[in-house]
Amino acid sequence: MTDKSRPGAGGRQIAALTLPTLGVLAAEPLYLLFDTAVVGHLGALPLAGLAIGGLVLSESQLTFLSYGTTARAARFFGSGDRAAAVNEGTQATWLALAIGSVITIVVEAAGLPLVSVIASRGDIAEAALRWLRIAILGAPAILVSLAGNGWMRGVQDTVRPLRYVVAGFGLSALLCPLLVYGWLGLPRLELPGSAAANLAGQWLAALLFCRALLAEQISLHVDRAVLRAQLVLGRDLFVRIVAFQVCFVSAAAVAARFGAAAVAAHQVVVQLWNFFALVLDSLAIAAQALVGAALGAGNTANAKSVAGRITAFSLLTASALALLLAVGAPVVPELFTDDQSVLAMIQVPWWFLAGQLPIAGIVWGLDGVLLGAGDARFLRNVTVIGASVGFLPLIWLSLVFGWGLAGIWSGLATFTALRLVLVGVRTLSGRWLVTGTG
What we know:
With about 450 residues, the protein is mainly α.
């Protein structure tokens, strides 16, 4: 094995992977926050439409194409076989294009019933559908970018993905206000302008990831054995994703039944939750790459070292974010909307989010450790248990008893606490320390 491919577990190595990854992960939620602010100044109805349409689009982001590819590529990279690691990216990209095309066709055909199920009012559903019909054309591009991030993280190259993602979302951020408000002589498209800006940026990033894959000069043929292995790992991660999505779709659906102001307030705080979660995920992804490489090289001591360091760093980062959120509570919500009915609703989920962030920090760090070890089946079971026992019951009880956003966000807090207990016990048991590339 070359020195370049030898895994490391020091703070400098973690930082070298984490900081560019943080930029990649932060780019999308930062853009979504910006997009939310731009659309929010059109009023509560467009913001509610963005919330529902964006929620449906987010269901197309099958992150197993990223996380599963990172875990598998990292093991090959740790064993010194870069070509096999990159081949994982090739096969994941073929999957991305195929699955993304199917998603686009399905959503275009069934868009109206999809948004109508979530939205409680016809005007919200109509606004969401106008946004979604344009934005869903970017589904294949979104999945290609996820696959590209996956294999490049696996070979511990996190700088180029940062450039590609920043280029894509930079284009979206430039176009968004121009198309929404009709600045610089462009037509005033309002909410559909947001979708068009999103679409342009997603495809730019995808093309850049494809170019990076072609530059590796390896075979682009379909490898059925690798595809089968990816699908087995992806199956467990997909079930995990579905459990998350069912919870957040249910939360949005229940929030919508409390009115446009409630779902708009929920949207703002959910976007903050997504932003903070992905900030913490930058550490988790460093854990995936380093743990996978360490276990691929047969180095269990290094894998344990990564687990301990990542957990400590993640807890400290999450605590700092919670403090910032608490300090900013009186003024930050006004950056997203000036609608007084929405601002009045925001405070409840705001404090739920601040209170649970330190717990979430530990959970995300340990998730990364176990994902890097390929322990996807266990994480699938943890997520399903947490969703069915904690999150979903409280969401629907909130609708029955009129608990509003407080009940919905109590469900998320319970979900996070249950996951902490289960992944903590698993990590301490050491059963995830399985070496080799199989």
